[in-house]
C-alpha cells in the first residue's frame, strides 16, 4: 500500500503527528461477591488461581498509573511560529489600490504568523529535548511548556528530515530525562503508553499495545523502522513519547494512518534505537552524519526472484554502483544481491539502508553477496553520505520515435542519441534504448516500465541501442524479461512477465 504525505492510495491521509489522546480510567474487574460464612450458608465461590508469574522486568497492568506519573513530567508541549508571506496582490503596483487594500510602501505583500503545536521528550540535562523534525522545521520561534504550565524559549540544535527527528534545547528547563529502553527487545502485544498534547487540549496519556515492529517501505521518511501501536495518537502530538510500563522511552510518536485525520487504530513511532544515534550525532556535530556504501538498491520482488533464479525474495538488489564510491572500490556490480552485513542477514533493502547509515563513517564491513547465482564476500570501508538533492523527475522528450520492440508489446523505443541524452540530463556516455511510449494496458506498464526510462541491460547483457534490446529479448523467448533501466538519474531492475 503506497503512502504519500497528502494521502494514501488517493484517499488515506498520512498525518505527521504524535502521541496521545484522552485516556479513560480502567475499572478493576468485578469479582464474585463473597457472603460471610455462617450456619447453613454455602462455601464461598472459588476464585480462579493466578496465572504464571510475568517474566523478570515485565510490568503488570497495575503499574499503569505509576508509569504515567513517572513519565508525564518529562513530556513537554512544543509550539512554533513562523512568518508566512501572503500571495502578492495583483494591484500591489498601483499606489491607490495598494493603499486601499492595505499594502505598505513599496508594494510588499502582507504576512501572517503561522503557529503549530507538537510535543517533545526530555532526554538530557539542560533542557535537551527530542522531537520530530516536522514540528520545528523552518520555525522562527520555538516555545516549550511543561505540564505545570511553565514556559521556556528553546533553540533548535539540529534537524534530520530523513528520519523526521530533531533536537532542541530549552535552557532553564528542569525536568527529569526519560531513560531509553532497548527498542529491539520490544515485543508485539506489549503494553505501551502514548503521552503528548493532542489537538492542543493539554497533556494526555493513552494506553494500547505494540501492534507490530519493523514497519518500513511506507513512504513516510527515507529511514523507516516504525513501531506500530494502537495506543491513541492524534494531531498535535508529533514528537511525543511512547513508553513501556517501566517508564522507559520506547519510541517517538510520528504518524498515523487515517481517513479522517483522527486516530483510527494505527499509529507509528520511531524506535529509540534508531533515534539515539541521530540524537547523539546532532548533539556532537549539529547534524546527522551517515555512513555511505554508494549503491542504489531496491527490494527483491517475487517476480524478480523468479526471473533471476533466486530461492527467496530477500536481500537488497544492487541496481547501480556510484563511481568512486566505497562499493565501487570494493568491486560491487549492478545485479549483485546483498544478503548479509558482518554475518547478519539482510532481509530487505530498507533494512540494509538502516544498517549502513548507522554503522559509522570509516567502518569496515563484510558484505555477503550473491552474483550470478554464486555466493561471495566483499569487504567495504564505508564513507560519509554526500549531501545531495534527489534528482528531479523528467518526462521523455517528444520527437524521435522508433519501432515497437517485441516481445514488449505496447512499448515503443528508440536509440538514445547524444541529443536525447542532453534533453534528459544524462551523461553523454550513457547509451541504451529510450522508452518513448508504454501502453497503460500493457504488461510492461504493469511491471513498472515508464516513458523516459532508458534500458541499459536486458538478461544481464548490455543494451546500447534499440536493436540490442530486441536481440536480447528474441534470444530468450518464454522467459521473464529482466531489464535494468536508468530513471531520474537512478537505476533499477524490472521483471516483466514472459511473452
Describe the fold and architecture.
- With 499 residues, this protein is of the alpha+beta class.
- Among the domains are: 13-21 and 177-285, Trypsin-like serine proteases (Thrombin, subunit H, Beta Barrel); 291-384, PDZ domain (Pdz3 Domain, Roll); 411-496, Pdz3 Domain (Roll).
- The chain has helices at residues 64-71, 95-100, 133-136, 272-285, 302-307, 326-329, 349-357, 418-424, 443-446, 466-474; strands at 13-16, 18-19, 75-85, 111-124, 128-131, 141-145, 151-160, 165-169, 191-196, 204-215, 226-229, 233-234, 241-244, 249-258, 267-271, 291-292, 295-299, 316-321, 337-341, 344-345, 364-371, 374-381, 383-384, 411-415, 433-438, 454-458, 461-462, 481-487, 490-496.
- A six-stranded antiparallel beta barrel has the order 9-10-11-15-14-13. Strands 3-4-5-8-7-6 form a six-stranded antiparallel beta barrel.
- The longest helix is centred in the middle third of the chain and has 14 residues, at 272-285.
- Residues 1-54, 89-101 and 388-406 have low confidence and may be disordered.
Strand content: 25-35%
Return the CATH class of the domain at 13-21 and 177-285. Answer: Mainly Beta
CATH architecture of the domain at 13-21 and 177-285: Beta Barrel
Structural class: alpha+beta
* Residue share in helix: 10-25%
Radius of gyration: 28 Å
Largest sheet: 6 strands, antiparallel, barrel
Count of DSSP strands: 29
Overall shape: it is elongated
Terminal Cα span: 28 Å
Strands across the major sheet, in which order?
A: 9-10-11-15-14-13
pLDDT averaged over residues: 76
CATH superfamily of the domain at 13-21 and 177-285: Trypsin-like serine proteases
The CATH topology assignment of the domain at 13-21 and 177-285 is Thrombin, subunit H
* Count of helical regions: 10
